[in-house]
Amino acid sequence: MDIENFILNLKHNPTGSGIFNPWYDSDPDNDCDHQGPQIRRLQLAAYLKERIGRCRTVLVGEAIGYQGGHFSGIAMTSERILLGGQSHRGISPQHVFRSIEPQRTSSSEIKPLGFSEPTATIVWGNLVKAGLDTRQFIIWNAFPWHPYNSKKGFLSNRTPTDAELKAGFGILKQLFLMTGKVLVIAVGEKSKMVMQQAGIAAIKVRHPANGGASKFKMQFQKAIAS
Known about the structure:
Blueprint: H1 3-9, E1 19-20, H2 36-49, E2 57-63, H3 69-72, H4 79-82, H5 118-129, E3 137-143, E4 146-147, H6 162-167, H7 169-179, E5 183-187, H8 189-198, E6 203-205, H9 213-225
Parallel strand pairs: 2-3, 2-5, 5-6
Antiparallel strand pairs: 1-4
């Protein structure tokens, strides 16, 4: 399994309403132009190419959110990070990838500085503040696509169904074929459940959302030291 085929396989998301595929779907309401999917594929490819062969740890969250991978193309990574808007926190675009110039895909009329995802800022901030080589980490999701509330539109999130989560098993296993043996950290209870169902050994840490940032940091540091 190579990166090109891996990204090609992401095209096969579950059918039905309320699922957005960042790499193959356009967001007609919020993308800045028709090149959104292509840019998101290029950014994901750059991110993975700088890590496959070096990665030692994979952090697995639940699903892509509209403030993160929906527009960046990378799990738990916001446009704000890619555009340098979190540099004051020590998080630079180069921590994500260096080989290409980062681009936004959302319309600047909606968010002039790009979308910002709190979870993304916390996770990347912990990697950077701990002095870790960010290219030894891949951040991914149990459900790799963006589940949204069809009544609220693309700028919303929802919890993926059990059937949808199972549909992500194949992509997860393809990712681990590329990385080889790595430490897997499940971010949140739902992610840990999916790892167990998929037969993937993982250490669970608290999800940083809803007041969990301190516990996430403590448990994450303990996990990578194990």
